[in-house]
Amino acid sequence: MAKKVIFFWVFLAFASEQVFSQPDQFIFNGFHGSANNNMSLTGVADISNNGLLCLTNTTSRVSGHAFYSSPFRFKNSNESKVSSFSTAFVFATVPEYPKLGGHGLAFVLSPSKQLSGSPSQYLGLLKANENGNSSDHIFAVEFDTVKDLEFGDIDDNHVGVNLNSMRSIASASAAYFLKNSTKKELLLGSGRQIQAWIDYDSPKNRLDDSMFVGFSASTGLLASSHYILGWSFNMSGEAQSLSLSSLPSLPRPKQNHTVLTLCLTFAAVVVIMSIVFVSFYLVRKFKGSDVIEAWELEIGPHRFSYQELKKATRGFSDKELLGFGGFGRVYKGTLPSTNTQVAVKRISHESKQGLREFVSEIATIGRLRHRNMVPLLGWCRCRGDLLIVYDYMPNGSLDKYLFDEPKRVLSWDERFRIIKGVASGLLYLHEEWEQTVIHRDIKAGNVLLDSDLNGRLGDFGLAKLYEHGSNPSTTKVVGTLGYLAPELTKTGKPTMATDVFAFGALLLEVACGRKPIEPKALPEELILVDWVWEQWQSGAALEVVDPKLNCDFDEVEAIVVIKLGLMCSNNEPDARPTMRQLVRYLEGEVLLPEVVPSPGGYDSKKGHGSGCTGTGATRFEDFVHSYPNSSHFDDKVGTYSPTYEDGDVDIEAGSRSTTPISISGSGNDR
Fold first, then answer.
1. Is 468 buried (19+), middle (13-18) or exposed (0-12) by CB count in 10 A?
2. Which parts of 392-441 are beta strand (E)?
3. What DSSP state is assigned to residue 430?
4. Which of 130, 150, 180, 266 is most exposed by smallest CB count within 10 Å?
């Protein structure tokens, strides 16, 4: 609905010398076509494609002017009478932010159509330093939407009459009247179409000479778009009213999509996060699920759930780590259901011990039952994680009590009991179980001690099974440097004799408190078995006994252990005793041979063969002379102590002697 606002004012005289002829009236229902040619635009003013005159846009601190291209003569030079005029126009002020508003516009009479006024509160009419200068000859009717105290504005929604100044000589709040003369407030910045009429009463005789008629508008920090939809002007009567239906339409207000954008963004983020969360959950659930394959049903030991073992080890926390080696890490755990302490061996993804060795280990020790072997409680396979659950051995591995600075010094009695226990366990593996089991990695680090310091053989990750009386298949060389029998690098075949060789190294390191290979020792003491053999030949065998015992040991038992260690370390497999013979020797059931052949197959002092090599080699059974012995050994009390810092060196190589041997530090397996 059009709103009609009528103003009457007195216009001051202006000086001008323009002489021309012009039409008395015009009407523009939009500014396309010929109307476009009759308008002069400056600043940011523009005419849209649909004929809408846009004085400003939402750009801050700009001005726009639009004048009828030809001036009108308001006073004839030969007459004193001033011509009357009437004008009507439809405008709209659309603030960028409706709640904050912006500056307004003005209908202008000016001697020039090139205005250079300032933006913001000056509406593009006057410069800030020229406000109130009578030489400007500017007459305007402002439709202002900002209350500027500097100019004495009555409010932020008013119409005022200005003469050469932004301070209005007359103003009133914008309003319109109903037919019953009821006054209604009119919001100039509502963004709606408003039709205004301005009539000049010529009898007042206030206008002079000729001037340009048009509009001016500006923006400040807060911008508004100012539009003129139609305009009529008449010098000889009342200006024709404009039909709103025939005028160009205002551009659709820019919809505030902030809320919608935020809602859509939030919804998208929620959806994406939900997808990520669900995917992560499904992957974790799928990865953490226990997938049982057919071959797993044939394995005897109890199968734990992955979540149960994860909870038992507190998520495989580093604080629960007992040790690690080439095959992975071992964690201490407590089963929540029974409150039983366990050791969980978690085989790493990069471990050389893959699924095949894992299956071999659990299939083997799952059926083995012996008091001197670490009992297997169960196992778990969860995708990439392979886990074996053992009974927890509170005293850890034997190497922690032998080398460097041990937890405490084991007495000779404790050492001898551990040796006999390990020998008994190996005899069970070699001869007493339904199949022959070759351990292939006997060393102090794989002998675990229970609460009573009994030795228990553990870590069957390299174990090899074959039927009694048959030959083991050729395989790659695996084990720990210093415990490997020399024939392994030639044949690659693990046998009971290769286990016996490793057991011999264990006997010597328990008796001497030294590793089979000691890089920090003197050159003549580098290889333990060579050094012990030299001392044996020189008659000083007891000098090799661990000095941490402070000579508190059973000399007879010590000689037995050293002698058996040398016999087991013979380079010839056939010259080594069997585990059954070793157990009988250790139990004192049979006498030991008096003569000990050289471990290397020759006597380094005498320079001749010992009869243990070549075709004329003397077999172990040929040594019948006894060493002083008894049916049992008296227990002696002693002490012992070293810590294990340097890791053992694991070896893995091909089955032939021409294949290179790779050496890598593996550390403790427990």
1. exposed
2. 436-438
3. I
4. 180
Question: 410 and 357 in one domain?
Answer: no
Angle at Cα 19 formed by Cα 18 and Cα 20, nearest 5°? 120
pTM > 0.90: no
Question: How distant is the alpha carbon of residue 38 from its chain centre?
Answer: 67
Between 26 and 521, where is the model more confident? 26
Alpha carbons 113 and 8: distance in angstroms, whole number: 24
CATH of the domain at 171: 2.60.120.200
Structure-token pair, residue 368: 């083995």
The pLDDT score that the predictor gives to residue 326 is: 53
Separation CA 383–CA 291 (nearest Å): 8
Both tokens of 117, joined, read 């006024």
Mean pLDDT over each residue of the chain, to the nearest integer: 79
Report the number of distinct structural domains present in the chain: 3
As a whole number of Å, the CA-based R_g of the chain is 54
List 144, 399, 413, 441, catalytic entry? 441
Q: How do 302-303 and 376-382 pair as beta strands?
A: parallel
**638 falls in which pLDDT band (50, 70, 90)?**
very low
> What are the Cα distances from residue 334, in Å, to 63, 201, 317, 343, 397?
81, 105, 13, 9, 19
Of the pLDDT bands very low, low, confident and very high (cuts 50, 70, 90), residue 390 is confident
Read off the pLDDT of each residue in 35-48 and give the average, rounded to a whole number.
Answer: 90
Q: Based on the fold, state whether residues 376 and 441 are members of the same structural domain.
A: no
Residues 523 and 637 placed together within one structural domain of the fold: yes
546 classed as catalytic:
no
As given in the structure block, the two tokens for residue 204 are 């007042």
User: Is residue 283, in this structure, part of any structural domain at all?
Assistant: no
pLDDT (0 to 100) of residue 536 = 93
Which domain CATH number covers 347?
3.30.200.20
pLDDT, greater one: 52 or 327: 52
What residue numbers bound the domain in which 367 lies? 294-391
Predicted local confidence at residue 651, as pLDDT: 47
